[in-house]
Every structure is written in structure tokens, then in C-alpha cells.
Design a protein that fits this description.
Length: 328
């Protein structure tokens, strides 16, 4: 059986973008693959975090994974900082990463631009991400469009290590959904929807109440020509809403265009809001039942235990390949 690994940062409540670009595919994939899903809290601290908020976000993300349909009988769900092998291999991969290639990462440039101080962790973030993936002999990494460059670097680092030391790493393939790989901000549809956006109206959080979802979608930026048509370049707002609608319902964009052919944006937006609420409401109900439960802790404990066994084996091989420690 092939192996899947993916991670999400607990840097705020997940958006509908995280759900449609990543989480939704995770749930579908767990029937056919051996899956590892991670809460990458060590990645989150590469930018400043409030410790209490971070703790809450970690737990909340775990509950959201499960409420969205991640089944602990099929998948391993765990917290990155509870499996020390991630930072151990991360360090080894940092040691073969070049500063130049790390500086070229667009996510680094986006997050570093305009900041007075930037942590070195933000620069070496992709080496840790490569470690996450390579520890589990991952074949496929399901992610949104924005992670492409990090995946390419992961493959390069795996190849470099295999070539320099010993052939121990599997080269992972990326898997991006056909629709929903890049959900845009509702207020500026030329920008990616992000959970760390300062403007609350720009994103729909997975825990937003139905009324709030409706309000945000109704105030989403569109255009003045009143035609519901998919056209990324000239109609980015409507195109984004069509993408959200289609990803939530599974209905094709063409069929949605037809459905709203002679109708105004008001009716269209109501349709989008209903589609989003229909997807999120059952998840929110399950979330409420899970968030304070002992079951959640038990699942995370089991996940840590299972992930640690596999990850430690890879670290031992990588240490041996690099010549670290003593002969055992
Ligand atoms: P993060 O936490 O930013 O996002 C989690 C997942 O959601 C996807 N995503 C989106 N998809 C569609 N539209 C959007 N607007 C949108 N915003 C985010 C992301 O592509 C991602 O799949 N570096 C990763 C976390 C990570 C990781 C890993 C991922 C750490 N280690 C190993 C895969 C494998 C990140 O920042 O994701």
C-alpha cells in the first residue's frame, strides 16, 4: 500500500481554503492509502505565536481533522513536536540545504518581506517540511497549489542525500486537487485565502456560524457585469465563488454557470453560502462533541506512538548514512 503524508499549521482556525485544498482530499484518500496527517506546530513557531492561542489552535486542528472525517482506524493523526524525529532529521536536511535555494522560496519571501526581524527557522522551514515527508517513506503528498515549490525542494533534498550518502529516501509525488487548489480571498480575489489574514471578511473559517458565512459571502468582492461566468483573469471574484461552490457540492462549474445563467449575483451568492454551510455545519457539530473529549487525547497519543516507531527507524538510517554517533 502506498503512503501519504500531509501537514497543516495550527496558526489560526482553518479556512474553507484549507478544507477544499487539503483536508477534503485527505478524507477521500484514507481508504486507499496508508496515511499520516500531522499538526505541524514546529512550523507554526517560525513566526511569533501567542503560547495560549497556539495550544488552543493545536487542539482545535486535531478536532477539525477528525470532525472532517479523518478516521483514526485508517489514518495516523499526530502532533509534530511530540515526535522528536522530525527536528532530528530536519537538522540533517538543513545541513545539506543551501541558503540560496531556501531564500528563493516564495513563501519565505512573502512572509519575510517588510519584517524588521526574521527568524532563521522561517528560512529553514522547507528543510523541516522535507523531513516530515521523508521520515515516512511517503509516496504522495496531497496539498494545495501554494506548496508546489516546497515539494520540489523536498525531492531535491532527498535526491541530494541519496546521492551523497546512501539511497534511503523515497522521492514523493505531489497531488493537487483539480478544483479548489487555490481558493482566493473574498475581499481581494487576486490574493490567496489565508488563515492568518488580518481582514476577517477575506476568509471563511471552518468554525464560522452560518449567519457569519452568509454575511461574508454576500459582501464578497465581484464585478459590475452581473454574469455568473468562470473567467480567472477578468472576473476573479465570481470565478473564486464558482470554485468554492463547485468544490463544496461536486457540481461542475459548467453546470453551475448554466444554473445561474439569467440570475443575479444575489441569488448566486445565496447558493454559494448554502453550499458552504451544508458542508461545514455537520463538521462543526462533530467538532463541538470532540473538542473537550478524552477520546481526542487518546487518538493523539496513539498517533504519536505509531508515528514515532516509523520515524525513529528512518532517523537511525539517516544517522548511519551520514556517520553521526557511534557504530551500533
Ligand atoms: P498550511 O498550514 O498553510 O495549509 C495547509 C494546507 O492547506 C492548503 N491551503 C490552501 N488550499 C487551497 N486554497 C487556499 N487558499 C489554501 N491555503 C492553504 C495548503 O496548500 C496546505 O496543503 N507548509 C505547509 C504545512 C506542512 C506540510 C508538511 C504540508 C508542513 N509540513 C508536509 C505537507 C507535507 C503549510 O504551510 O500549510
Amino acid at each position: 500500500m502506498k503512503t501519504i503524508f500531509s501537514g497543516i499549521q495550527p496558526s489560526g482556525t482553518l479556512t474553507i481554503g484549507n478544507y477544499l485544498g487539503a483536508m477534503q482530499q485527505f478524507v477521500q484518500l484514507q481508504d486507499d492509502y496508508q496515511c499520516y496527517f500531522c499538526i505541524v506546530d514546529e512550523h507554526a513557531v517560525t513566526v511569533p505565536q501567542d503560547r495560549l492561542k497556539l495550544r488552543n489552535n493545536i487542539r482545535s486542528l486535531a478536532a477539525l481533522y477528525l470532525a472532517s472525517g479523518i478516521d483514526p482506524k485508517k489514518s495516523t493523526l499526530f502532533i509534530q513536536s511530540e515526535v522528536p524525529a522530525h527536528t532530528q532529521l530536519g537538522w540533517m536536511l538543513q545541513s545539506i540545504s543551501y541558503i540560496g535555494e531556501l531564500e528563493r522560496m516564495t513563501q519565505f519571501k512573502d512572509k519575510a518581506t517588510g519584517k524588521e526581524t526574521v527568524s532563521s527557522g522561517l528560512l529553514t522551514y522547507p528543510s523541516l517540511m522535507a523531513a516530515d515527508i521523508l521520515l515516512y517513506k511517503t509516496d504522495i503528498v496531497p496539498v494545495g497549489d501554494d506548496q508546489k515549490q516546497h515539494l520540489e525542494l523536498t525531492r531535491n533534498l532527498a535526491q541530494r542525500f541519496n546521492h551523497k550518502f546512501n539511497d534511503i529516501f523515497t522521492l514523493p509525488e505531489i497531488r493537487i486537487p483539480k478544483v479548489g487548489a487555490r481558493i482566493m480571498s473574498l475581499q481581494d480575489p487576486t490574493k490567496k485565502m489565508s488563515k492568518s489574514d488580518e481582514h476577517e471578511k477575506g476568509f471563511i473559517s471552518m468554525l464560522d456560524e452560518p449567519k457569519k458565512i452568509e454575511k461574508k459571502i454576500k459582501s464578497a468582492v465581484t464585478d459590475s457585469d452581473g454574469i455568473v461566468e468562470f473567467d480567472k483573469e477578468n472576473k476573479p471574484g465570481v470565478t473564486n465563488l464558482l470554485t468554492i461552490y463547485s468544490s463544496c457540492t461536486g457540481e461542475s462549474v459548467e453546470s453551475l454557470e448554466l444554473k445561474y445563467k439569467d440570475k443575479g449575483y444575489g441569488e448566486f451568492k445565496q447558493g454559494v453560502a448554502n453550499a458552504v454551510i451544508d458542508v461545514l455545519k455537520p463538521i462543526q457539530d462533530k467538532y463541538d462533541a470532540l473538542i473537550d473529549s478524552q477520546e481526542l487525547d487518546d487518538i493523539l497519543d496513539q498517533g504519536t506512538e505509531k508515528a514515532t516507531i516509523t520515524a525513529n527507524k528512518t532517523v537511525a538510517k539517516a544517522k548511519k548514512a551520514m556517520g553521526l554517533g557511534r557504530v551500533i
